[in-house]
Amino acid sequence: MKYQGPYVTEGVAQNNNFICTVGNKKRTYHANIFKKYEERQPSPSLHPAVENACAGFVKEEEEDTEADVMLLEPKRSEYPGNVAINNELTPQQNAEVRELMNEFADTLSDVPGKTTRVTHKIELTDVTPFEVKQHLLLVHAIEAVNKEIDFILESGIISRSTSPYASPITLVMKKDGAIRLCLNFRNLTKIPIF
């Protein structure tokens, strides 16, 4: 992602969007793509030509907030044979644990699956369909978004929909430069019957 700006924020729009002046046009941007702008103080020790020639990246150490978030992995990497079993168990107990793990190997997976045993229906207080306009995606992110959507479609985690309701996606950049797709269901969560 390339840094651009700073831009003047003209106002606040709905759903954490801000209206900014870019050149001589007004654009709407989601709050997740903003970075705090800090103006640098001129360095008295460097000649202006040298200061402009120097560049670098500062990687701030951040607390890892994704520790308990399960990330989608395309290929299975965990199998019953990989599991370390407590060595204080007797050989018979160890064999019983292995047998159970092999019996339920399909449920002991790091790849998300789906079930057909339960269905969920959301009843709405207002059945008027709505469609929230998708935020503009950065050109270089479109390929990554399409790849992620294709993967979760092929995995059976999501399916194609003809629903008259449409909620936008928001991209969250991970520390490693990859993207996370997040769906903005705020308009839908305002109208369910509980």
What does this structure look like?
The chain is of the alpha+beta class and 194 residues long. 20% of the residues lie in helices and 14% in strands. The chain is built from four helices and five strands, in the order E-E-E-H-H-H-E-E-H. The strands form two sheets. Strands 1-2-3 form a three-stranded antiparallel sheet, with no helix packed on it. A hairpin with a 5-residue loop joins strand 4 and strand 5. 0% of the residues are buried. The model is unreliable at 46-71 (pLDDT under 50).
Task: Spell out the key features of this protein.
194 residues; alpha+beta; two-stranded antiparallel ribbon; 20% helix
Helices and strands, with pairings:
Layout: E1 8-12, E2 17-22, E3 25-30, H1 48-53, H2 91-103, H3 139-154, E4 169-173, E5 179-183, H4 186-189
Antiparallel strand pairs: 1-2, 2-3, 4-5
Organism: Elysia marginata
InterPro entries: DNA/RNA_pol_sf (IPR043502), RNA-dir_DNA_polymerase (IPR053134)
Protein name: Transposon Ty3-I Gag-Pol polyprotein
Average pLDDT for all residues:
75
- Rg over CA atoms, rounded to whole Å, is 24 Å
Number of helices: 4
Silhouette: extended
Question: Which ranges are low-confidence, i.e. pLDDT below 50, for 5 or more consecutive residues?
Answer: 46-71
How does the helix and strand content classify structurally?
Answer: alpha+beta
Distance between the termini: 41 Å
- Multimeric status of the protein: single chain
The helix/strand series, from N terminus to C terminus, equals EEEHHHEEH
The total count of strands amounts to 5
Task: Give the fraction of residues assigned to helices.
Answer: 10-25%
Q: Main sheet, how many strands, which sense, barrel?
A: 3 strands, antiparallel
Instruction: Enumerate the strands of the largest sheet in spatial order, edge to edge or round the barrel.
Output: 1-2-3
Q: How much strand content do the residues show?
A: 5-15%
